[in-house]
Design goal:
Radius of gyration: 16 Å
Distance between the termini: 10 Å
Oligomer: single chain
Helix content: 25-40%
Shape: globular
Strand order of the largest sheet: 3-11-10-6-7-8-9
Order of helices and strands: HEEEHHEHEHEEEEEE
Number of strands: 11
Amino acid sequence: MLQHHRSFMVPALALLLLAGGASTVQAQQGIAGVPVASAPANASGDARAPYAWSDLCKRSPAECRVDVSEPERVEMTPKLWKAIVAINGRANREIEAVTDEDHWGVVDRWDLPEDGKGDCEDFALLKRKRLAETGVPRRAMLMTVVIDEENAGHAVLMVRTDRGDFILDNKRNAVLPWSQTGYVYVKRESQVRTGWTSLGGAQTSTVASVR
């Protein structure tokens, strides 16, 4: 079991979503079996960046840079859907999940899992890198912090498309519309500057570390 630096109190509505949202909400199916998210995950103002993300930016500035000339959303095609599903599943199989405490001897560290080990944000960074190599614009792929089914901080990759926002997660191989994961969405990378923006799901200052 991967450990967290801090636990969270989740509102009653969020607990209901965590308990049943993913199983009761069904995606609308589009062409070629690509699901359609019912609505985008809209931002609601600035948020404090995770401190380990800020450290990553100092070590690897390109991982945090925002190019506003790129599109905010990418066109979802059968080819892109196939790539997203394949890259998500392959990374989940290849990388050994370990805590940052066990891996680096620190509470929280974000990095590409070049030695084959990592926790949630490392999985997400690798998936973003591999999708970028296929031509997906970096601006449409956002590191995102959520509260998971264990009431703890967790990081996933959100891909913003013209068919909705989809989540690549190291906890599952299925790529789901954001609203079907059962997670409470806290914050994600900004698409207009180097920084983070709130998704309104919790007090953004409470998320100290993620897995």
